[in-house]
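On clarity, I found the account of how folds are encoded harder to follow than it need be. What matters is that the chain and its backbone geometry are given together, residue for residue. For the editor and my fellow referees, an illustration may be useful. For illustration, here is how one protein appears when written out as sequence plus structure tokens:

___
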Amino acid sequence: MFDSAGRDTRRVRPPALGVALVAVPFLALLAGVRYDWWRYPTAAVIFLEPATVCFALLGLAVVGVFWVVRSYGFWKREQRLSWRMGLAPLFVVATTLVFFAVQTPTDRAFDRANAEMAMIADSMLRDGTEHLGSTEIGGYEFSTVFIRDGSCVYFVDGRRSTPTEVVGWLYTANCTPNLDRFRRLKPVVENWFSFEQGT
């Protein structure tokens, strides 16, 4: 619709709740990966988990571009901002804050089990036990526990490990880890690191 001066008089709406709701499924996918809402087949996790994350990020990027275009169009037309424009960014920021504030199930499991894990590690070092098979500690199952690099004790998380990547925790009360062995080595609490090894 145009006025007598030829200007477009159609109402331009800012991106509002609809755009925010479109972002929700993609945010939910990221939350599902972070908080283990589902399990991937062990052999396929190395492909499916990154693919899920990439799909969710791509979806959020598309929503973000749409939000920017609509917001700019509204501002250019109306020469003002609207509180509705903040809904979609608010959803994304709130989800990000939750990711930082709420521990993952894996982190919570380690917090529950690490005292008993330390007892087992000290017992293995004291008794000269080099290897344990599948071991459940504090309700969390490790595919193997073993000593390497002198007196470093590895607790391998079989649920998160893949055929090409070993993931778990490293007990270092009596050793200095060889950094060249790890793709990632992150301090968790005193004498403990989370680690990743693989190609």
